[in-house]
Design goal:
The termini are far apart. The chain is elongated and about 110 Å long. Helix 7 packs antiparallel against helix 8. The chain is of the alpha+beta class and 380 residues long. The protein contains ten helices and eleven strands. The strands form four sheets. Strands 1, 2, 9, 10 and 11 form a five-stranded antiparallel sheet that branches. Strands 3-8 form a two-stranded antiparallel sheet.
Amino acid sequence: IGSGRRIDLDISGPDLEQLLAVAGDAMRRIAKAMPLEAGHQLRPNPGLELGAPEVRVIPDRLRLADNGVTARELAEAIDAANDGLRVTEVADGSSRIDLTLMGPRNGIDSTQSIGSLPVVTPSGAVIPVTQLADLVMTAGPTELRHRERERTITLEIRPAPGVPLEAALDLLRDEVMRPLEAAGLPSGVKLGLSGTADQLAQTWDAMVVQLALALVIVYLVMAVLFESFFYPLVILLSVPVAAVGGIVGLALLNLAVFQPLDMLTLLGFVILVGIVVNNAILIVHQALHLRRERGLEPHAAVATATRNRLRPIFMSTLTSVFGMLPLVLFPGAGSELYRGLGSVVIGGLSMSAVLTLLIVPPMLGLLMPALEARHDAQRS
């Protein structure tokens, strides 16, 4: 499974058997909500099969207490007889060497011989492991994964190519995670999303902040240029219009070819904030110039400014639209990367060029008489 659009469902907890049971239930729910026949991919990491032979030494607390041996001492005795027990570190000149306590190499010739390993008690007696613990032959996992210091089984999901990542995340939350939590998870078991899903949430939060910051910067710059906090508000009315046009452009593109609302496409909306306000700025600036420099009445200034700026607005819009059409219409290497961005910018510019002329002049005509009367009063 590739990592480009992969969603990781992490199941973490202290008990391996409980994790396997929850992971198996989650696998069945995911396979039902996102069937493999529809192009979805699903893989557990590590596998849910306990295919590795395992010998478990289960200490008997009562027998350990009778012989004065702790569970840690029992574990260290078994460890020394197998791979060796690191005791300390010895300095040899400029190098340091581990001092390891090891039992005889021929002490264990089969897994069943672990029960015969000698353990020395504080009284000096030597007894086998079987007198202090029970040995169980079972099967264990081939791999143990840890996430944030907890045992974790990760279900790696890759949605089908036609399914947006956000829709797949909502489906996992509604059809898998919430039903599992409602049914009751074992104590200590937690569910979480990571991988591309986590990156998507971080990128979305960053994109929202960037969009808000772009609006604030544009507003402050225009407030300084026009020496007013009200005229920039009239200009910013073109931004929602452009956003609607961007959505319409993306919807029209999806009628021909599938284009998800990815982060690069969302960047087109941020670009629109800085582009579409230019048409409204032309009208407001020209109207203020006619009112303050030539002495025209506010309504006459707005009408004259709109008539004079009509041609520059459509000229700049048409050059931008036709300049971006190759991003949307012409196929080629990397065209799918910028196709969504181009459709958003083209749709936003086209709709803004028309609707800005229907929204900005009337709003300017309503506010300009009162604002200019106040401006004249302040100057006098």
